[in-house]
Design goal:
The structure is a homodimer of 368-residue chains. Helices cover 25% and strands 29% of the residues of chain A. In chain A, strands 1, 2, 3, 4, 6, 7, 8, 9, 10 and 20 form a 10-stranded mixed β-sheet that branches. In chain A, strands 11, 12, 13, 14, 15, 16, 17, 18 and 19 form a 9-stranded mixed β-sheet that branches. Chain A contains 8 helices and 20 strands. Chain A is globular and about 60 Å long. Chain A has 2 domains: 174 residues, 2-Layer Sandwich (D-amino Acid Aminotransferase, Chain A, domain 1); 166 residues, D-amino Acid Aminotransferase, subunit A, domain 2 (D-amino Acid Aminotransferase, Chain A, domain 2), CATH 3.20.10. With 368 residues, the first copy, chain A, is α+β, with helices and mostly antiparallel strands. Chain A starts with a helix and ends with a strand. At the A-B interface, β5, α2, β9, β10 and α5 of A face β5, α2, β9, β10 and α5 of B. β5 of chain A pairs antiparallel with β5 of chain B, so a sheet runs across the interface. One pyridoxal-5'-phosphate binds next to α6 of chain B. Chains A, B: Pfam families: Aminotran_4.
Chain lengths: 368, 368
Amino acid sequence: MTNFAELNTKKMSSTYTSNLRIEKAATSKLKDVNFENIAFGKTFTDHMFMCDFVNGEWQQPQIMPYQPMTMQPSARVFHYGQAVFEGMKAYKDDDGKVFLFRPEENFKRINKSSARLAMPEFPKDYFFEGLTTLLNLDKDWIKPGVGNSLYIRPFAIAIDPAIAAAPGESYRFMIICAPAKAYYKGTVKVLIAEQFSRSANGGVGYAKAAGNYAAQFYPTNLAQQKGYQQVIWTDADTHTFLEEAGTMNVFFRINDTLITAPTSDRILDGVTRKSLIQLAEDNNIKCEVRPIKVNEIVEASKNGSLKEIFGAGTAAVISPIEGFEYQDTYYELPEIGAHSYSSMLKERMLNIQHNLAEDKHHWRYEIK
Amino acid sequence: MTNFAELNTKKMSSTYTSNLRIEKAATSKLKDVNFENIAFGKTFTDHMFMCDFVNGEWQQPQIMPYQPMTMQPSARVFHYGQAVFEGMKAYKDDDGKVFLFRPEENFKRINKSSARLAMPEFPKDYFFEGLTTLLNLDKDWIKPGVGNSLYIRPFAIAIDPAIAAAPGESYRFMIICAPAKAYYKGTVKVLIAEQFSRSANGGVGYAKAAGNYAAQFYPTNLAQQKGYQQVIWTDADTHTFLEEAGTMNVFFRINDTLITAPTSDRILDGVTRKSLIQLAEDNNIKCEVRPIKVNEIVEASKNGSLKEIFGAGTAAVISPIEGFEYQDTYYELPEIGAHSYSSMLKERMLNIQHNLAEDKHHWRYEIK
Ligand SMILES: Cc1ncc(COP(=O)(O)O)c(C=O)c1O
Ligand SMILES: Cc1ncc(COP(=O)(O)O)c(C=O)c1O
């Protein structure tokens, strides 16, 4: 875990001299926001971070009032979807201290995504200095307490005005922030994919590439029409192995063992997923990382050994799944309430994130 | 083939009353353009077409001077790649008449793409009225003669300012135009994909979805470093069947038979491809539409029966392939020059497009 002091030292000796330019908003929109009733991802804080890549170099990074921007209709992102993103959260404790959760993982992942999309990697010191300064400016937007957070969206897009189907030369890296409550309300019913797929072997499924998400909207709409909030994707070859949900990795509990699919070039390496695997170990819960056949959970459901399914991701934290449909049959999960692994793990996770529990793996990253 | 008179009649009785608003450019940029030396997709004509979808309806369509536009950083297209496009060309004959080639196919295809990306379909009369009016305004940008054309880029993007991972409610449909010479210069060497893939079964490969293209940039870069301009994609499951290239379908000639892969949910149903299949029939060339194993063309190359490979697409028309690499071996195609099917079919195609030959299938669509 890199801390910011280290980063600053590193920055001095790096070829990047960040020289972050800051333009503060004249007034804050904060007073107009009703935090009790906030829709996910529609309200943004007072400031945003922006840095352009031109002529082979990242230019001066800037923080400025959150505002619209001017784009050419020919900008490559509109035509070829050359865009990647991340999703992180900031949490506040009762003393007003602000924390991120394993931000280094998100930093590494956005650069991994960028590499796969033929986009330039973003410098680490720019990322952490931008993030820290932005969160300090907008920290009043983070409400303390479990259930509240500030959703942080770093993203990068190709902006050159040229529609040849080839990587661009100009890019924009941005960070915008939106106050958030829980993402999915209540429990979730899911449909297991039998026809549509999310990603291919040798494709971009492991990257947070923009186009991966639009590709899921139509099949997810169809699932919703049948009463399912989400789709659990299966492998595109055979549709027999369980992979992940739209924005969550998935865990299955059979008897007292958790199982989750291994990551691959089709599956996103989720920060929540890897943290839960560690937390399971810390709490003496057996967790197997291995391919899982749909039939295995169908059988387990039939014989009563399937106890829980839950999704895991930054936006949703842990999202318990109430039941699933596969081959026109609906399988309901038993109600185990307070004894569930999902509620226990969720509580431990949130307590670490909100500085309410010991952080033995150094996952918290305080914003100073 | 719908003609515009019919469309106009239909429009009258449709629920859409287009009422196209036109704002002309004060001056033309045309005089500043050197048509002899024009890079693909970087220079745009004086006008563009724009129509927004808001509150469940397409709003008044507009033609206006080509110009940048304002976008929210939270616009869904930046985050989730909800964007589709088309590629068409306009040609001018020596009498100054302007023609499109099978534009109905592009119109149908962009709506097919939109449906798969959970985007609203665009009304036919808006599309054709917009296109016709735009081309009439900018017709001086189309130079007569074979080899010249105006590349037309209809596209649609999700513009609502909200980063929940779900389909948007606001969209923008646009048409921009760029004068074009031949897209690929000279012959092309290709690498046959063994590891990376373009699309999955049950995915969005058959749609002109923006994200499909960014996903190809990195593997194509790697191929270029090895001296290959393009990748020929294979099926993601086994990498043993030949599919298509980045922006072209592919034809193989073994002895005197052409072979091209069938379209599927992974392969774009190209207008050039389907026109060439017809032209082959018209010219008594046998053309088989069937799965083709990589090994089949490797064997055919070894025993001398593989005569030609060429790509087919609107941008490149027909692009002869000089050789291919597969499993670290380079296979060179024989030089058959003027006797090739590719040059014969390309000439027939261009002659139809440029009003120099009979158009027995009614593919030309005159802009009046
Ligand atoms: C496809 C996909 N899977 C899983 C996740 C969960 O990853 P993380 O726990 O890092 O948020 C996300 C999003 O965040 C995702 O987009
Ligand atoms: C993936 C892909 N395949 C094939 C083609 C060729 O299609 P068309 O002949 O309609 O231009 C295109 C582009 O135009 C394409 O993007």
